[in-house]
Amino acid sequence: MEQESEEDFWFKRMGDSELLPGETVSFSNFQLKWKADDNYTTVIEGFVYCDLVKKGTTALNQINISGEI
């Protein structure tokens, strides 16, 4: 994992094995924590980059969080 900025985290699969069609990659024990103001909202998006798609493609799912304290 590399932290590019306070908002961007980069994960890289280890090893040389290919990710085959239909396969998934999971990041177990990964947590995000932040100090929220009275009202908060955030979106967590994922992107996949590879040799064939250098500009990246969005992941199929995203996480939307909002609430108030």
Reconstruct the topology from this structure.
Blueprint: E1 2-3, E2 9-10, E3 39-44, E4 47-48, E5 57-58, E6 63-68
Give structural notes.
The protein has 69 residues and is mainly beta. It has no helices and 6 strands. It has strands at residues 2-3, 9-10, 39-44, 47-48, 57-58, 63-68. The protein has a two-stranded antiparallel sheet with strand order 1-2. It has a two-stranded antiparallel sheet with strand order 3-6. β4 and β5 form a beta hairpin. The model has no long low-confidence stretch (mean pLDDT 83).
Name a few traits of the molecule.
elongated, 69 residues, single chain, mainly beta, two-stranded antiparallel ribbon
Short description:
With 69 residues, this protein is mainly β. It has no helices and 6 strands.
> How would you spell out the order of helices and strands?
EEEEEE
Structural class per helix/strand content?
Answer: mainly beta
Give the biggest sheet.
2 strands, antiparallel
Radius of gyration: 15 Å
Note the total helix count: 0
Span from first to last CA? Answer: 31 Å
